[in-house]
Amino acid sequence: MASPAPPAADELPGPAARRLYSRMEASCLELALEGERLCKAGDFKAGVAFFEAAVQVGTEDLKTLSAIYSQLGNAYFYLKEYARALQFHKHDLLLARAIGDRMGEAKASGNLGNTLKVLGRFDEAIVCCQRHLDIAQEQGDKVGEARALYNIGNVYHAKGKQLSWTTVQDPGHLPPDVHETLRRASEFYERNLSLVKELGDRAAQGRAYGNLGNTHYLLGNFTEATTFHKERLAIAKEFGDKAAERRAYSNLGNAHIFLGRFDVAAEYYKKTLQLSRQLRDQAVEAQACYSLGNTYTLLQDYERAAEYHLRHLVIAQELADRVGEGRACWSLGNAYVSMGSPAQALTFAKKHLQISQEIGDRSGELTARMNVAQLQLALGRLTSPAAAEKPDLAGYEAQGARPKRTQRLSAETWDLLRLPLEREQNGDTHHAGDWRGPGRDSLPLPVRSRKYQEGSDTTDRRPRDGSHSRWTVRMSGCKCLARASPGPRLRMRSASLTC
């Protein structure tokens, strides 16, 4: 049998009602504080359970309730339950407005903006982040202003990145709308950088430099990108942040590829590889091997290219990464062709074909079929050159499949223009809160290829450099759980609140 509901306040004498609600207040706050402790420890599911229990108990303290809403939104964000995160941040925003808490409204707006960004609702996100900025400036909150500027830059960066995925243009050759979006991102990052310099926040300066480097890379300003990434590298070393240092090396390698300085790029990628091993991050190690294989291809050192692609293949197999395995096989096929070993190339081309079929990669399958046919012709296993030029491709082009950009299996034609961009944390996990764990800097993400997405910014997105134990984000802020003056009795049971 269910326990009877507690009597309402008007059903009890004054002192009895006060004692009852005092116990409930203590219970609500204790539950919420335990939820906060669990989230700090990285146990978000358990933390959510305690926060929800605190909500069910209820409280007269509206600032405490607002803090619980905010913390619930943060916890659901880290659990990647973004719809629920959005719901609770909306509750927080409405309550902050109801009690006239302008700083609380600013922080809730920032959290809403970050969540909307992850959901791809960029225009709404900008409105929320701009409101955060406006209130921070109104209140003279320089730290909040810096966070808001950073978050607006994040939204424009994420929007520009998403738009760039829908085009075939390479960095620097972007449609006007994409270029303008990324230019706006750069503008807000510059403003953020200026302000965090004024505040003396070196960690925030590092993030700003990294994001400016990434934005200028996408805009095709590769020399400027290297300047910013070198600044980012210096600050990473200053803090002993090996993960950020590794990302800076990778981004410097990418920029030098586009500057045509392949030998310099190779040295940066080697440092990336070394640090990825120190950090025991196999996915990043695989990506570094892939980048080195591509770079040595550009340097026409095909034996070393094959060596790194073989390392990539082994790691991809260990990680059960079929997409990466297929890419490695394709790369190895090209490398062995360049070394004059068509029989070995055919082995890898067939493996690439098999994997492409298994994972449903129609473009990869089309490429592999063409490569297999060409190699079989070269080995004398086909009698018709026409069969090699155009094998049975019925149905492929109708489904939009296109072969990868190659020149008869030439190893010169890699997808190097799609080298992965190591992103600073662009708000995907820069959610606001007070539960600070170890310092976290960036969630790297690729420019176009989603193969080794590390986030997150940007992001789908599993934080790689910041695990769930690294709780909170610096860039919006949320509310601490603390007692405040009592207000009207309020229990949060309804989910019908809207922004």
CATH superfamily of the domain at 286-422: Tetratricopeptide repeat domain
Quaternary form = single chain
List the secondary-structure elements in sequence, H or E: HHHHHHHHHHHHHHHHHH
Work out the strand percent: under 5%
The total of helices stands at 18
Fraction of helical residues: 55-70%
Low-confidence stretches: 1-13, 394-403, 405-418, 426-430, 432-476, 482-499
| CATH topology (level 3) name of the domain at 286-422 | Serine Threonine Protein Phosphatase 5, Tetratricopeptide repeat
Helix-and-strand structural type: mainly alpha
Question: Main beta sheet, described?
Answer: none
Principal-axes geometry comes out as elongated
Taking all Cα atoms into account, the compactness measure Rg is 27 Å
CATH class of the domain at 286-422: Mainly Alpha
The CATH architecture term of the domain at 286-422 is Alpha Horseshoe
Number of strands: 0
End-to-end Cα distance: 38 Å
> Kindly state the mean pLDDT as a whole number?
80
Give an account of the 3D structure.
The chain is mainly α. The chain has a domain at 286-422: Alpha Horseshoe (Serine Threonine Protein Phosphatase 5, Tetratricopeptide repeat). It is 64% helix and 0% strand. The protein is built from 18 helices and no strands. α14 (302-318) runs antiparallel to α15 (322-338). The longest helix has 27 residues, at 14-40. It starts with 13 loop residues before the first helix and ends in a 110-residue tail after the last helix.
